[in-house]
């Protein structure tokens, strides 16, 4: 799994934005800003052995990848749930799950959702439809 973001220069700094994580960072150079983006995602994930990286694709477009897609999915779900002010129980209710642990397994990185299930989970935490594209690699 890879997350989309963008990088651009403004007032002498290179800025990186990762909208789905509601996160931004900066650097003096584009390379430094991309390194900072990887560090930011690692810090947010707060998981032993988790590594993230940012790659410039073209123009302002970047992608964030990692060595552990479960942890990356878990981070996205947690950040989206928190940014929308929802509890685990509220998300479980939206999913019509029998227990909040059903959803929590995904947010803790213990279960890996299918692409279809991930779309359902993101809809439940953000209350909007999310388009997920499967990468070639």
Give an account of the 3D structure.
- This protein is of the alpha+beta class.
- The protein folds into two domains: 64 residues, Double Stranded RNA Binding Domain; 58 residues, Orthogonal Bundle (434 Repressor (Amino-terminal Domain)).
- The protein is built from five helices and five strands; from the N terminus they run βββαββαααα.
- A five-stranded antiparallel β-sheet has the order 3-2-1-5-4, covered by helices on one side.
- A hairpin with a 2-residue loop joins β4 and β5.
- α2 packs parallel to α5.
- It is elongated, with a radius of gyration of 15 Å.
- The model has no long low-confidence stretch (mean pLDDT 90).
Tell me briefly what this model is.
With 137 residues, the chain is an alpha+beta fold.
Features:
137 residues; alpha+beta; five-stranded antiparallel β-sheet; 5 strands; 42% helix; 23% strand; elongated
Write the layout of secondary structure elements.
Blueprint: E1 3-10, E2 13-18, E3 23-27, H1 30-45, E4 52-58, E5 61-66, H2 69-83, H3 88-94, H4 100-107, H5 115-126
Antiparallel strand pairs: 1-2, 1-5, 2-3, 4-5
Helix pairs in contact: 2-5, 3-4
């Amino acid at each position: 799994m890879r997350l989309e973001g963008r990088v651009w220069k403004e007032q002498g700094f290179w800025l990186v934005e990762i909208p789905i994580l509601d996160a931004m960072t900066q650097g003096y150079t584009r390379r430094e800003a991309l390194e900072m983006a990887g560090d930011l995602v690692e810090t947010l994930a707060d998981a032993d052995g988790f590594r993230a990286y940012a790659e410039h694709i073209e123009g302002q477009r970047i992608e964030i990848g990692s060595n552990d897609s479960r942890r990356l999915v878990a981070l996205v779900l947690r950040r989206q749930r928190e940014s929308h002010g929802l509890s685990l129980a509220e998300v479980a209710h939206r999913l019509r799950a029998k227990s909040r642990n059903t959803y929590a397994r995904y947010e803790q990185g213990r279960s890996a959702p299918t692409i279809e299930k991930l779309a359902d989970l993101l809809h439940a935490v953000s209350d909007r439809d999310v388009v997920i594209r499967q990468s070639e690699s």
